[in-house]
Automatic annotation (TrEMBL):
Similarity field: Belongs to the Lgt family.
Organism, scientific name: Aquipseudomonas campi
Binding site for a 1,2-diacyl-sn-glycero-3-phospho-(1'-sn-glycerol): 139
Protein name as annotated: Phosphatidylglycerol--prolipoprotein diacylglyceryl transferase
Record flagged with keyword Coiled coil: no
Length: 269
């Protein structure tokens, strides 16, 4: 068994203001995405300025934060937030939904594209390889917060999380680290190398949806579901898995359609 590193969730306490590691992880994700997007900008559109790129990153970040929070409220704990609406503002306590954040990013991307003569999928293909940076950083934030841990296990890398997080004090899967490795590192490597060569429009977006959906679906088997929901769909699927199923199917559909459309266009020429 590995010892859980006792890290204070508050990175910096300034008295009236407390800076949490969880919030800093969002800054890491946004800043890292902007830096890598700057490297990819010339290949995407040489006429774009760094200022326009910054605008895109800003609106996408707003989509992540607002969509992620609202998605968690709607998908995972609607009754609790209706009972205490101001709880929605306490984002440093956790409670963000990837799937809600994805919907927020999609809406922000559609809006930005309409105002900058770019199609929805042109922008989504550009953004997709950057997203795993934020996903990985967010999972590190979950680990520091000692939240979203896994089921009990006797594997040698199991951890006992703080009593305030896990009153049962069982040795558990560090599922946050599994998600960091898969949704962060592995997904970034796949998308970064896949997108280095020209791909038909929609293919990179489809690869993102497919791989994320598969990775998240797998980890959910060892991650404890949210207590207020438990298992759904006959007692064997979590909400995360249910939300990933359309991503997997949609990703496969986008990739197939992208290459079929490219072949049809090539044949027509």
């Amino acid at each position: 068994m590995l010892p859980y590193p006792q890290i204070d969730p508050v990175a910096l306490d300034l008295g009236l203001i407390k800076i949490h590691w969880y919030g800093l992880m969002y800054l890491v994700g946004i800043g890292g995405a902007w830096l890598l997007a700057s490297r990819r900008l010339a290949g995407f559109d040489a006429s774009w300025s760094k200022e326009k790129l910054s605008d895109l990153v800003f609106w996408v970040a707003m989509g992540v934060i607002l969509g992620g929070r609202l998605g968690y409220v709607l998908f995972y704990d609607f009754a609790a937030y209706i009972a205490e609406p101001l709880k929605i503002l306490r984002v440093w306590e956790g409670g963000m939904s990837f799937h809600g954040g994805l919907l927020g990013v999609m809406l922000a991307t559609w809006w930005f594209g309409r105002r900058n003569d770019k199609s929805f999928f042109q922008l989504m293909d550009f953004i997709a390889p950057l997203v795993p940076i934020g996903l990985g950083a967010g999972r590190i934030g979950n680990f520091i917060n000692a939240e979203l841990w896994g089921k009990a296990t006797d594997l040698p890398w199991a951890m006992i999380f703080p009593v305030g997080s896990d009153p049962e004090q069982l040795a558990r899967h560090p599922s946050q680290l599994y998600q960091f490795a898969l949704e962060g590192l592995a997904l970034f490597a796949i998308l970064w190398f896949y997108s280095r060569k020209p791909r038909p429009t929609m293919a990179v977006s489809g690869m993102f949806a497919l791989c994320y959906g598969i990775f998240r679906f797998i980890v959910e088997f060892v991650r404890v579901p949210d207590a207020q929901l438990g298992y759904l769909a006959g007692g064997w699927l979590t909400m995360g898995q249910i939300l990933c199923l359309p991503m997997i199917l949609g990703g496969l559909g986008l990739i197939a359609y992208a290459y079929k459309r490219q072949a049809a266009l090539g044949a027509a020429q």
